[in-house]
Amino acid sequence: MKAEIIAVGTEILLGQITNTNATFLSEQLASLGIDVYFHAVVGDNQQRLEAMLSIADTRSDIIVLCGGLGPTEDDLTKEAVANHVGENLVEDAPAMEQVLQYHVVSQRPMAENNRKQGMIIEHGIPMPNPAGLAVGCFYQSADKTYILLPGPPAELKAMFLQETAPLLQSHFPVSEMLTSRVMRFIGIGESQLVTDIADILNEQTNPTVAPYAKTSEVTLRLTAKSENGTTAAVLLDEVEERIMRRVGQYFYGYGEENTIENEVVSLLQAHQRSVTCAESLTAGLCQSTLAKVPGVSNVFKGGFVTYSAETKQQFLGIPAELIAEYGTVSPECAEAMAVYARNKLKTDYALAFTGVAGPDELEGQPAGTVWIGIAGPSGSYARRMIASRDREYIRISAVKYGLNFLRQQLLIDHQK
């Protein structure tokens, strides 16, 4: 089966939002053995959407539309698809009741156009919305399948996983399944990683290996085609072992949604250790990044933003003589920041950042020069990181590298 994903929304064309739904849907459809051949984006215009549907009909078996199921005048996906397939829109009683009850419970007046959210294409299968109000629709003509999903990612994901995927599995059973595994690496660029595993990439058949570059890290997606999950796991394990022999020192975890901060917090929680941060050029970014992880309050007590030489002395107590002798952009300063921060809050570990975010030099050091200090039970030290590009890239890279250094130290200390 060949599938096509059509994102509906003028805001996507204008660049006001990122089309993350297409990534999610492609991954999910591939896992069901359905190949996605085309991605398309069309604005909130019924004529243009119907023209896009006509094109999709010529090249795809399954056409997935996301967005345009809301109550406003520019939400036209249901109308466009219904007109395209020659059907009417009809009320789905359970969906309409959900819309009515929402307004009763929230004590909000219900406008007449809210009823659109409870309508589906006649002869289609309604897909309840577990995270919102707009009902989805699974409609099949003689030779095409149209799937209408809401635009908000939380609603789309919940509906697809709970409603759409089971329908696709029942209507299009496959003898083979696709199983993917995502490996994540920090400290190596995409070009170097690809060079180090070039023969694996060139020889790939099943499983396939695809590299993807992200900010200061690289992911590899390993995908195996097999009749069952057990066979797929064996195939994936074999190619992963080959990859790890080449670049295993840069590997930090698995998963599309996983992050280096997740890994660090998990290790801190598992070993019952705590951490604090002292930040200069990153200005609280490391602490903000850690705070994204649920449960971080168990291991993170708080930290310091010491953006100037004066605050490094006032907040942390670093001697003025040390800064006068070595400067703020130095391994000595970074290490001292970590040591004094750890002592101040009495944590097991401390992570410190100082450097030059740019664009101008500082203390004779070029933009992109970063020193990362670590203090812990086994001592303290500082590491240098050199980054390029703009200020934001340098700051984000510093945080990722610093967290990875901390992850590595946690593993070393746990093995002692």
From TrEMBL:
Q: Pfam families in the record, alphabetically?
A: CinA, CinA_KH, MoCF_biosynth
Enumerate the SUPFAM superfamilies for this protein. Answer: CinA-like, Molybdenum cofactor biosynthesis proteins
Residues forming the MoaB/Mog domain are 4-170
Q: Which SMART domains match?
A: MoCF_biosynth
Coiled coil residues, start to end? none
What domain of life does the native source organism fall in?
Bacteria
Q: Which InterPro entries match?
A: CinA (IPR050101), CinA-like_C (IPR036653), CinA_C (IPR008136), CinA_KH (IPR041424), Competence-induced_CinA (IPR008135), MoaB/Mog-like_dom_sf (IPR036425), MoaB/Mog_dom (IPR001453)
Family label: Belongs to the CinA family.
UniProt-recorded name of the protein:
Putative competence-damage inducible protein
Organism phylogeny: Bacteria, Bacillati, Bacillota, Bacilli, Lactobacillales
